Amino acid sequence: MTTTLFSFQQHTLKRQGVSVLSSLNLQIQQGERVALLGISGAGKSTLLEALRRQQPKQSAWSPQLGALVPMLSVFHNIYMGALNRHPPLYNLTNLIRPMAREWQSVAALAQDLGLSDKLRTSVDRLSGGQAQRTALGRALFSQRDILLADEPVSSVDEQQAEALLTMAIQRHHTAVVALHDRELALHCCDRIIGLKQGEIVLDAASSSLSISDLDPLYRRG
Amino acid sequence: MNTTAARFRRTTLLIALIGFAALWLADTRITTGDPGLELQRIASGFLAPDFFASDQLIPAIGYTLAFALQGVAVGFGCGFLLALFWRWRLVRGFSAVIRAVHELFWGLLFLQVAGLSTLTGLLAIAIPYSGIFAKVFGEFFEEADRAPAHASPIGSDAFSLFWYARLPLVWQHMKTYGAYRVECGIRASAILGFIGLPTLGFHLETAFRQGDYNEGAAFLYLLMLLVLSLRFWLKPMLMPVWLIAALVWAPPRGNVTEGSLSRFLTQDIIPAPMRQADWQWHQLGDWSSMLLHEQILPGLTQTLVLGTAALLVTGVLSLMLFPLISRQFGHPLSRSAGNGLLVILRTLPEFLLAFIFVLLMGPSMLPGILALSLHTGAIVAHLCGRFTDTLQLRSDASHGLNRYAFEVLPRIYPNFLALLLYRWEIIMRETAILGILGIGTLGFYVDSAFSELRIDRALVLIAAGVILNLLVDAFSRTLRRHLRLRHSLSDLG
Amino acid sequence: MIQRLPAALAALCVSFLLSACGTPEQKPVLVFSAIPDQDEAHLMQRFGKVANYLSEKLDIDVRYVPVKSYSAAVTAFRNNEVQLAWFGGFSGVQATQLVPGSYAIAQGVEDPQYLSYFIAHHSSGIPYNNTVTGDGFPDGMEGRSFTFGSKSSTSGRLMPEFFLREQFGRSPEDIFSRVGFSGDHSATIALVQSGAYELGALSYKVWLREVAEGKVDLNKVNVVWVTPPYPDYHWVIRGDVDQRFGAGFADRVQQALLDLNDREILDAFPRESFIPATNEDFLPVLETARSLGLMD
To answer: Which residues of A make CB contacts under 8 Å with B?
Structure first.
């Protein structure tokens, strides 16, 4: 039987005191791969944050602004996903001098992300796409069951974006990803949730949808 | 590693190595005796301040404020004028020289000509502050956005462009910085009491040196109250009122007696061997070499050692102290306590800290190092802590030590280093006051020269100090440029 | 702040100009000062009484200005900010050297035979001795830390350094592990009592007063050596006072000081009474200062 991971019933979500999503009804089961679609400002990020509050301990989190530490290396930025797994002194040692064990596991992940040659480079010297991959890398390195990602591949070129997103989603049993690329959403996810003007206006399996079905989400009025 | 952080690490290592070398060279022997009795008296003095022991309280406050306000206002105006010509190397050099001389030394020099007068008090603050304002304002203009001026119609005259497209961009910063300088000015004005001007420092120093701690505590509390209450009464609207009040209370007037200026210029500052009619070059050579070996070299070495050691300790202290007030750590209660501690540390004059530490640890360099570092460390920690409040960390950012090491420290490190390097010059300058307290910096020899009424020697020693300051400043600028640190407008402290 | 900066600056300029115009001619006021050698917090009270006394005797306004250091007193005297001053031996000869025509007019009856005490913290183990023995320093002083008083003090620096150099044949820096300047006599007692310095030298008068007032813990600090006597404090007056205040003025000031017998006022110094003095009385001090390189 399936487990319900996230559940909202007649919820109102606010951002800085202003209601963004009202009368929200939504359930997400374990094992689902959900794409959130909608124009910017539709409430995707707010919804993701609300989801995260329901499963704080299990969520791998990749926010829109990667919130990386610009002057630290890619290695350290990815390693930060594991800070909660180790005692502070261990982390501090690893900050001053990376340990072989941690280096190997981060390097393996970096290879999948196409960042192998950048491990020693600080994030402020990377391109936007590389920085985004680093942010995704941190989420993956946190080794949690649920991926909550907000536009994780928006700066990566199209060919790589799909491979990267697929890889990220496959490493989690459940994923909720906010996207703006409709095709990517249909390819990588099995459920599409469309947001518009503070409401869920679309909630369907991606197999039942075509690109044109998604157009109304982006139309004015 | 090819990281930005690695460059900071290398610089930190360099500073730490130099700092440790200085600490190793410095005389830090602790000779504790029986400080118990004296400390007990100090403590009871602070618990029971006696506000009525002296009838000089009100005039002392009046003079402290008057010199500070007048000095800062004149410095603001002159600094602004100098900043307009900041492109000129000559102006930059001139500003650097006048601000490298401590207020106390300016005061001692003017004392020779204008006597114990209000003019001496005003000029002692106004001159170095002109140099400081010139530098800060000059950098404001340099860093300000040039686009508005470029976008103006071609052929607009430079004068109009300045008022329309340059000044408005930096005016707010200038005002904020001016207000901050009033706070420094009040401290400087109080310190001028050490050399005899009738400000709070006059009575403060007397009381502490004589062991009248109840009276001293009263003066100290008043000084802290003045500084802490600034933001309540130093309103932009009221500024002209305060200035006029300052002028009425202490109209700048010098006790310039007939011939004292020409005597100062034609006799006092001429090297002693040259004052004889038939002097010879070798006499001047002997004199210079004596001064160099017996005073300048030991003085410079000690100043450099003390200042550099203090820089290291300041760095360590500020990194330890800033989390106390940062919104990224702790909770409101701990932050209020932290803020209180930092306010006290940076308002307490260095000399007082040094005085108490001498009683505690004996007369080595350690009291000086600690006094300077605690004071400066509190300032740097305050500015760093404020800066961390502007950081937007992601909501799943770690906590405690992890947050400090991975999230906060790397982000504020450029600002921290810029501030620290910028403070180096100021620390070196402030060693002057320790010299007057008897710690063997260059200030000690300057003070001795003045007390032996040998102005010629004092002037040479002050010039040596200026050169040291310029060198330190140049070195710190090179490091900052190497790190591509541009202290943003808010960083200047 | 500084919204109205231009206006404020203008006001400042105007007042500068006004002050430059000078002050109108006033009745001459005799201003005097004194070196801040002890009990500085009460200088105003102590010397205010002296001002009143002189004012009454001389029938002229007399004002006392406090100064912060010995050299400030000399500078004020030199700049004619003060016309009369109560100097120590060294500051007195500095003043008479710098101001041609100025001269000593009076000294305390004790001053021709002034003394310095060397004091030590009990942990040094140097035996107590408060009499002039004429012998050399006691054993065990070398290699310890030592503090003078003010750099320009005769009893706190000049004479102690003279006797140290004379008997050890070396500079204080070479005799002691560390040499400091406490700033004044009371501070010397406090520093040696707290153990911050093991040894110190100061004016015997200040030591006796502080002991009498109970401020000294004699179990912690005590006298270990007394210098031979030497001339010290004296009143110096500028040579041009007769022109300014009328012929014979300096003599009247001298007489007023010699006539002084009010116990309360004399205690301000503290002296039993004043006796005449001349510049020649202080030649030994001048020579000592020169031999120590403190004067050219």
So the answer is: 49, 52, 61, 63, 65, 67, 69-73, 76, 80, 83-84, 88-89, 91-92, 95, 120-122, 124-125
Tell me, yes or no, if B463 comes closer than 8 A to chain A by beta carbon.
no
- Give the tens place of pLDDT for each residue, B259-285: 788 888 888 888 888 888 888 889 899
B315 within 8 A of B420, measured Cβ to Cβ: yes
Is the complex ipTM more than 0.85? no
**Given pLDDT bands bounded at 50, 70 and 90, which one contains residue C10?**
low
Rounded to whole angstroms, the Cα distance separating A125 from B214 reads 59
Burial class of residue B147 in the structure, from the number of CB atoms within 10 Å of its CB (0-12 exposed, 13-18 middle, 19+ buried)? exposed
Three-state DSSP at C4 gives: coil
Do C19 and B203 count as a contact with CB atoms less than 8 A apart?
no
Which tokens go with B244?
A: 């006029």
State the best of B210, B231, B454 to mutate against chain C, taking most chain C CBs within 10 Å.
B210
Task: Record the tokens describing residue A177, joined without a space.
Answer: 């990803």
pLDDT in tens, A161-218: 999 999 999 999 999 999 988 999 999 999 999 998 888 889 999 889 888 888 888 8
Spell out the residues 6+ positions from residue B308 whose beta carbon is closer than 8 angstroms to its own: B18, B19, B21, B22
B305: three-class secondary structure by DSSP = helix
Residue C3's closest CA among B420, B176, B412?
B176
The CATH architecture to which B49-264 belongs is Orthogonal Bundle (1.10)
Cite the residue boundaries of each domain of chain C with CATH code 3.40.190.10: 29-111+231-291, 115-226
Q: Which domains does chain A have, with CATH numbers?
A: 1-58+147-221 (3.40.50.300), 68-143 (no CATH)
Cβ separation of B251 and C193 shorter than 8 Å? no
pLDDT for residue C3 is more than 60 = no
| Residue C161: other Cβ atoms inside 10 A | 19
Answer yes or no: are the C-beta atoms of B67 and B102 closer than 8 Å.
no
Q: Does B484 touch chain A if contact means CB atoms closer than 8 Å?
A: no
Beta strands in B189-245 (DSSP E): none
Distance of CA B378 to the CA centre of its chain: 13
pLDDT mean over B280-298:
91
Q: Say if strands A33-37 and A191-196 run parallel, antiparallel, or are unpaired.
A: parallel
Note whether B1-30+289-391+398-493 and B49-264 share their fold: yes
How do the residues of chain A divide into helix, strand and coil, expressed in percent and rounded to 5?
45, 25, 30
- Please tell us whether the domain made up of C115-226 is placed in CATH 3.90.180.10: no
Domain boundaries, chain B: 1-30+289-391+398-493, 49-264
CATH class of this structure's domain B1-30+289-391+398-493: mainly alpha
Chain B CB contacts of A73 below 8 Å? 1-3, 5
For chain C, the distance separating the N- and C-terminal CA atoms, rounded to the nearest angstrom, is 51
* Residue C104 backbone phi and psi in degrees, to 5: -75, 135
Predicted confidence at residue A149, as pLDDT, reads 93
Interface test with B, best of C9, C26, C71 (most B CBs within 10 A): C71
Contacts of B391 in chain A (CB under 8 A): none
CB A77 within 8 A of CB B3: no
Q: What is residue A134's predicted lDDT score, i.e. its pLDDT?
A: 92
Give which of B4, B404, B485 to mutate to test A binding, by max A Cβ within 10 Å.
B4
Shortest distance between the Cα of C32 and any Cα of chain B, in A, equals: 13
Q: Which fold has domain C29-111+231-291?
A: D-Maltodextrin-Binding Protein; domain 2 (3.40.190)
DSSP bridge pairs for A13: A21
Q: Between chains, do C187 and B209 touch, taking CB under 8 Å as contact?
A: yes
Interface contact B58, partner C, CB < 8 A: no
What's the gap in Å between the CA of B210 and the closest CA on chain C?
Answer: 6
Least reliable range by pLDDT among B143-152, C53-62, C71-80, C103-112: B143-152
